[in-house]
Amino acid sequence: MKTILTLTNKRLDDVNLHLADQSRRIDETNKRIDETNKRIDAVRDELVQRIDETNKRIDGVRDELVQRIDETNKRIDAVRDELVQRIDETNKRIDGVRDELVKRIDETNKRMDRLYDVVVRREEHAQSSQRLNAVERDMAELKRRIAA
User: Fold this and answer.
1) Run of H or E including 11
2) Is 29 strand, coil or helix?
3) Distance between CA 4 and CA 7 in Å, rounded?
4) DSSP conformational letter for 144
5) What is the pLDDT of residues 27-70, one digit of tens each?
6) How far is CA 39 from the centre of its chain?
7) What DSSP letter does each residue of 81-115 carry, written as one string?
């Protein structure tokens, strides 16, 4: 029985050594897990910080682009207003030139009508002169006949 006891004690000692070894290994594993968790937390914190910085940069770029777009829209509106004004001025000038040309055409037409009237009067005058000459000849002929 002593032998069994000795064997049992030896076996218990072996089991205790094995348990102590397992406990040491578990402690080492827990330590490694804790270190890994710390590294994960550090990486997470760094990533959160970098994401926040990236978001700030994105917001800055977005704000800058919105500002530039607004400025561009203002410039477009100003150019559009200027072009509309210039088009309106050009249309007014075109209307003025058209009115002036219509007036000048009307004046030219009136002058042509007066010229036509003068030409007709000259033709009538020439015809009247020819008829007067014919009447004068006829009168002279009649006077000669009466005197003869």
Assistant:
1) helix 2-147
2) helix
3) 5
4) H
5) 999 999 999 999 999 999 999 999 999 999 999 999 999 999 99
6) 52
7) HHHHHHHHHHHHHHHHHHHHHHHHHHHHHHHHHHH
Model pTM? 0.50
Classify residue 29 as exposed, middle or buried by CB count within 10 Å of its CB (0-12, 13-18, 19+).
Answer: exposed
The count of residues in the chain is 148
Mean pLDDT computed over 14-19: 92
Supply the mean pLDDT for the chain: 92
d(CA 56, CA 123): 98
Instruction: Provide the residue type at 144 as one letter.
Output: R
Residue with tokens 């020819």: 130
pLDDT digits (tens, 9 = 90+) for 77-111: 999 999 999 999 999 999 999 999 999 999 999 99
